[in-house]
Amino acid sequence: MHIVGIHGIWQGKTTSTSLSAAWSAALTKGLRTHHGPACPVPPLTVAYYGHLFRTPSQHLSSPTSAPLVEDNEPFTEEEEAFVLDTLAEYIPPGTDPQDIPTDTLGLGIPYTPRPVAQALAAADRTIGRDMGRRLLTPIRQVYRYLHHDIGERIRGEVRAELHRPGPRLVIAHSLGSVIAYDMLTRQDIGPGPEGLTTLVTCGSPLGWLTVRRSLGCEDALELPKGVDWVNLRAAGDIVAHSGLASIAPFIRDETVNNGVAEPHAVTRYLSQQALADLVAKTNSL
User: Fold this and answer.
1) What gap in Å lies between CA 5 and CA 20, rounded to an integer?
2) pTM score of the predicted model
3) pLDDT for residue 277 is more than 90
4) Is there a contact between 243 and 229 (Cβ–Cβ < 8 Å)?
């Protein structure tokens, strides 16, 4: 069995080799901790697309190396609407963001329209001070994957690994879970069910209605038959603030404890017993 990883956001300054090594180390820790030092560790490769979001060096920038999207790019009207609709899921019912002062957000949010800043401040009242701002980059990168030409480029980077022959398991983190779902349900470019046994999503934003609506699956999530789907959600992970089983009963939600410092971190998810048990079982088949 071979494991294919699909990473999430904030990976613009690394490589597939570095990510694959870090993911393998975390997975090995979980397997050896929960199944003993002799537990075999399947090979793992992370499909890398983070360079498409990276802001290039002034000295290295060129038409071919420049990213398709930069984090400080101004909002379009469509993107602002997507961000506001997503943040609304974190705002207490009955709260009018226009009544919320934004001075608690501090500095450092360039090109942020006032309605978005107000929504971030309102979300903080539910998920904690400055947490709304931490959501902004994930939301914007998910939007850009879904509604920007960068989506096709990302699928092109991931496709080679998803088409790897033989039994395999896909572990997709954060935005990677959106990419995995999108590709596995695209009959034109997806790999289909042949060889794919299991999909594991971690810290997934597929619970956001805005994401499902953009993917055309607002009411339900579906995968090709024969694929087992397990969703790991950590307490305190603001990106995966709700599970996925309520949207699709065939998905098995597993709540894990990643600690309070970095509940969304992929390495925390990869070392969890729930994932170790699944990998060990699948690897033995």
Assistant:
1) 8
2) 0.90
3) yes
4) no
